[in-house]
Design a protein that fits this description.
The complex is a heterodimer of chains A (about 290) and B (about 110). Chain A is an alpha/beta fold. Chain A is built from eight helices and 17 strands. Chain A has one domain: Alpha-Beta Complex (Spore Coat Polysaccharide Biosynthesis Protein SpsA, Chain A). A six-stranded mixed β-sheet of chain A has the order 3-2-1-6-12-8. Chain B has about 110 residues and is α+β, with helices and mostly antiparallel strands. Chain B has one domain. Chain B has three helices and four strands; from the N terminus they run αββαββα. Classes of the chains: A alpha/beta (about 290), B alpha+beta (about 110). Chains A and B meet through β16 of A and α1, β1 and β2 of B.
Chain lengths: ~290, ~110
């Protein structure tokens, strides 16, 4: 059975492909599997890729506009996230770990999923590493409280069930306005999290089937936090975050050897941070 | 701000940061205590290790993290769980000890 990671990376104002390259390096170091990236010619132009093993070139289909609330600023940009539902066909692997390019695998926690008999796994809970439960409101979708899952990290096998999930996500994407009215959420922007939530809930017999969830929470660092430093020798990331709604009041914390969804795109595309993470990736394991 | 107010504010802020750091260590341990075995996924808890240490039969069926009965070799799984438990708890203790010695996480 072939195993690998799959990352979609389409550049906009942010260099998603560089993020994906480093994310691929972390996948290789900590999970020991190759990474395929789905991207377009424009993102690839002039790019030297260091860790990505395989590139699938596919133009993105349209896009959304999304606002990213970052520390002291808000960035409004084109968000090219519409072809995630093609992952099933695009993945060259029998067992695939589909990751967002800003999900950094700093540990080997996800390696276990490849030895289980699951066909489809994702996160249904998020752990806010700033301790402020920023994602509490994301636990459910809409007025009818459909349980929300996250498309940030999804494991799937080439199986009938997984194929159905991805096919259904395509149907939801094409009829997103209808589903937004049905479940009572905003039709813009299109969110893969919502589409996967509806698809998985429906295909689980309109129930919450915990067998499709990773048995731990997805650690996330909110867009409002800033990365202060990364220490390659400790595999440790240090970050500052606003306490409550007061941007002037900062807390500082850190995490070591722990996967992290780094949502502040300005920080994650910063070359000095990426270079330090490369230093960790390139260091020989004793 | 008076001296006592400054001290109270500093204490509250430092305590918040340390609480966040401790919680993050605990969350990480929860991830790392997972052990995959024979198609199942088990958490290396003290209860499971104690149970396997005393169970008199070599092969048994155990409920995994997904509530599936999985056939396990008691000795093999016990060894895997013990190894994971020791490694994770050692790391946790080391970093926790660093934390309790300092007032602010930023100083580590």
């Amino acid at each position: 059975m072939s195993k690998g990671a799959l990352i979609f990376a389409y550049n906009n104002d942010f260099d998603y492909l560089s993020m994906a390259d480093v994310a691929a390096g972390l996948v290789r170091k900590n999970l020991g599997i190759p990474t395929t990236v789905v991207t377009d010619e424009a993102s690839l132009a002039g790019k030297q890729l260091k860790y990505i093993d395989n590139v699938v070139t596919k133009e993105s289909v349209g896009g959304n506009t999304r606002s990213f609330m970052l520390p002291n600023t808000t960035v409004k940009t084109l968000w090219r996230n519409l072809n995630r539902s093609d992952a099933y066909e695009l993945s060259p692997y029998d067992q695939t770990l589909m990751l967002d390019s800003d999900y950094f695998v700093f540990s080997d926690a996800l390696k276990h999923v490849f030895t289980t008999e699951h066909e489809f796994l994702c996160f249904d809970r998020v752990y806010d590493v700033t301790g402020q439960d920023t994602y509490t409101s994301d636990a459910v979708i809409g007025k009818y409280s459909l349980p929300m899952i996250w498309a940030t990290a999804v494991y799937f096998t080439k199986s009938e069930f997984s194929q159905l999930v991805f096919e259904f996500v395509k149907v939801i994407r094409e009829n997103y306005r209808y589903y937004s009215l049905l479940y009572n959420f905003s039709p813009k922007p299109f969110r893969n999290d919502f589409a996967f939530s509806i698809a998985l809930h429906t295909l689980s017999g309109y129930t919450t089937d915990r067998r499709h969830f990773f048995p731990w929470s997805m650690p996330s660092l909110t867009t409002r936090a800033s990365v202060l430093d990364y220490r390659p020798e400790l595999n440790e990331i240090v970050y500052a975050y606003p306490v409550g709604n007061k941007t002037y009041k900062q807390g500082v914390s850190k995490s070591r050897n722990m996967d992290l969804h780094l949502m502040n795109k300005l920080d994650v595309t910063d070359n000095s941070l990426l270079d330090k993470i490369c230093e960790y990736i390139d260091a020989k394991t004793i | 701000m008076s001296d006592i107010s400054t001290k109270l504010k500093a204490q509250a802020e430092a305590k918040f940061e340390l609480t966040v750091a401790r919680k993050t260590l605990e969350e990480r341990a929860e991830q790392q205590l997972l052990v995959a075995y024979n198609g199942g996924l088990f958490r290396a808890t003290t209860e499971l290790i104690a149970f396997l240490s005393t169970w008199p039969v070599g092969t048994l069926y155990l409920k995994d993290q997904y509530s599936r009965p999985v056939e396990v070799d008691r000795v093999v799984l016990l060894a895997k769980l013990s190894q994971a438990y020791t490694a994770v708890m050692n790391d946790w203790h080391t970093e926790y000890s660093e934390l309790v010695k300092i007032r602010k996480v930023a100083n580590v």
